[in-house]
């Protein structure tokens, strides 16, 4: 009986599971005694270093934008969605819920990075309904070097 090894990256760790006879191109492990046993190993941190370098250094001028997202955007994972998209795009800033039901995003990056984020904000996560995204220009803040979720104002 063959077992297949499937790995998933989570934070700084990679968790691997073995499943019997999975179809597809995967790494095969022939020890059936360890089937269904998760194994944890440290992840390669070079990808994370690339992301942090993307957020700090750029040849293009850094711009800043504030986005106010309206619709069904609270309680649907919108902030986590924005944080993930910002990390993918290499954008610095923050996202937070406001008391009026909107989600506010402060983002810094190149014009192309911010355009990509604006596009993703208009779509939102699957459970959200985005009615509008208001954009205002801001002054870049040198203290912003990463992206995170903040509390309500």
Keywords:
5-stranded mixed β-sheet, 4-stranded antiparallel β-sheet, Alpha-Beta Plaits, alpha+beta, 153 residues, 3 helices, 2 domains
Set down the secondary structure blueprint.
Blueprint: E1 3-10, E2 13-20, E3 27-29, E4 39-42, H1 46-56, E5 63-72, H2 78-89, E6 92-97, E7 103-109, H3 111-123, E8 129-138, E9 147-149
Parallel strand pairs: 6-9
Antiparallel strand pairs: 1-2, 1-3, 2-4, 5-7, 5-8, 6-7
Helix pairs in contact: 2-3
Structure description:
This protein has 153 residues and is α+β, with helices and mostly antiparallel strands. It folds into 2 domains: 3-43, no CATH class; 52-149, Alpha-Beta Plaits, CATH 3.30.70.100. 24% of the residues lie in helices and 39% in strands. It has 3 helices and 9 strands. The chain has helices at 46-56, 78-89, 111-123; strands spanning 3-10, 13-20, 27-29, 39-42, 63-72, 92-97, 103-109, 129-138, 147-149. The strands form 2 sheets. A 5-stranded mixed sheet has the order 8-5-7-6-9, with helices on one face. It has a 4-stranded antiparallel sheet with strand order 3-1-2-4, with no helix packed on it. Helix 2 (78-89) runs antiparallel to helix 3 (111-123). The radius of gyration is 20 Å and the shape is globular.
User: Under the CATH scheme, which architecture of the largest domain would be assigned?
Assistant: 2-Layer Sandwich
Percent strand: 35-45%
What kind of assembly state do the chains in view correspond to? single chain
The total tally of domains equals 2
Amino- and carboxy-terminal Cα gap: 57 Å
């Amino acid at each position: 009986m063959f077992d297949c090894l499937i790995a998933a990256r989570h934070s700084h760790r990679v968790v691997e599971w073995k499943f019997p006879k999975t179809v597809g191109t995967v790494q095969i492990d022939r020890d059936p005694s360890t089937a269904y046993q998760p194994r944890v190993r440290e992840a390669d941190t070079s990808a994370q270093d690339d992301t942090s370098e993307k957020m700090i250094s750029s040849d293009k001028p850094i711009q800043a934008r504030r986005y106010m997202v309206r619709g069904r955007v609270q309680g649907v994972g919108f902030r986590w969605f924005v944080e993930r998209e910002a990390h993918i795009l290499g954008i610095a800033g923050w996202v937070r819920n406001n008391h009026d039901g909107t989600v506010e995003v402060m983002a810094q990056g190149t014009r192309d990075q911010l355009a990509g984020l604006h596009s993703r904000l208009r779509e939102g996560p699957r459970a959200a309904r985005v009615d509008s995204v208001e954009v205002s220009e801001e002054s870049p803040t040198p203290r912003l070097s990463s992206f995170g979720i903040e509390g309500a104002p």
